[in-house]
């Protein structure tokens, strides 16, 4: 196996100009603290997302943490979150004492089910336990059904955190994701569609809220000649060197979306005829960046399973994964409340779903190999 080149799920894809920005940071000795690349990257991300303000951070998880602080999540506060997601969508809220209530997926989008959300709101209203926040996750780049979900949150007066970590460059109704909630955020982790090696961006139209988050992200220092603190903050800022990488990457975003969508198109062409295979749908009114190509394999119809296919690919040094294990099935959340769509949709997606290698730098030759191996697993 050591002699076989590894094919990764979603590796970084540098464009070449990143080193020019890094060199500029070195030439001007803006290694720290912060610096002009950070300021520019924030402006450029705010513009790309169509929001008024942005805050560059060292991870997407930091952005969740600052959004939760802004919404004043405290011990015992309930909040709603998509069950089918990565734990970072909500971990900071739980660490602040928030109590998660998980909402199932809609089969049409794999994202939060509007009908399950509605039932959760009705119960919350009846018990007088209105959630402090709703976290909407654009899974694998697919925007949520905002036209149905946002009015429900608005009706109950609950602010939305839009987890656009995976959906940088995706559109809903022609509008960029990350701009739909009270707060939105991007991740530039190494596996995302564009990367700073590690980083995140908090987004909002509320400039005052971003200013407050900025204050908290730099240790909450009061305006005084000495170090004085009236509250406690964090050390969450992105470095000027990494922001330089981000600026170069952001310029490539349209190309990266086009490439990921092309990867998806080739998989659909190469695998779409197999029995029991269904690709993650692109919900109406949206344009997904197709961050990862994901599909489900029905064991009854196909004669194989998602895990068998993962193993077949792993034997050839190819990385693939089951879809996210839903939060309501996680040991750490075993006591949490969960609202199903109808059947337990997120569980079904987890038990049958697989993510295939989807890098924007995946060669057609490598992709053809993946397609051939998946087809063999079906025989
Ligand atoms: C990657 C990711 C995050 C967290 O971003 P980091 O930059 O890795 O902290 C949050 N939510 C989802 C859905 C993600 O995929």
What does this structure look like?
This protein has 13 helices and 15 strands. The protein is α/β, with parallel strands linked by helices and 379 residues long. It folds into 2 domains: 18-252, Aspartate Aminotransferase, domain 2, CATH 3.40.640; 254-378, Aspartate Aminotransferase, domain 1 (Alpha-Beta Complex). The strands form 3 sheets. Strands 1-9-8-5-4-2-3-14 form an 8-stranded mixed beta sheet, sandwiched between helices. It is globular, with a radius of gyration of 21 Å. The relative contact order is 0.18. The structure holds pyridoxal-5'-phosphate. The site of pyridoxal-5'-phosphate has 14 residues, from helix 3. Pyridoxal-5'-phosphate (PLP) binds next to helix 3.
CATH class of the largest domain: Alpha Beta
Q: Give the end-to-end Cα distance, rounded to a whole number of Å.
A: 23 Å
The residue-averaged pLDDT reads 96
From the alpha carbons, calculate the radius of gyration and give it in angstroms.
21 Å
Look at the helices and sheets and give the structural class.
alpha/beta
Percent in helix: 25-40%
Number of helices: 13
- Domain unit count: 2
Q: Which small-molecule ligands are present, each listed once? A: pyridoxal-5'-phosphate
* CATH fold type of the largest domain: Aspartate Aminotransferase, domain 2
Main beta-sheet annotation: 8 strands, mixed
Quick structural summary:
With 379 residues, the chain is of the alpha/beta class. The protein has helices at 18-27, 36-49, 60-70, 91-95, 114-127, 146-155, 207-217, 240-250, 253-271, 299-302, 306-314, 345-352, 364-377, and strands at residues 53-57, 78-82, 99-103, 134-137, 160-163, 171-172, 175-176, 183-187, 200-204, 277-279, 286-287, 293-297, 321-322, 337-339, 353-356. The longest helix is centred in the last third of the chain and has 19 residues, at 253-271.
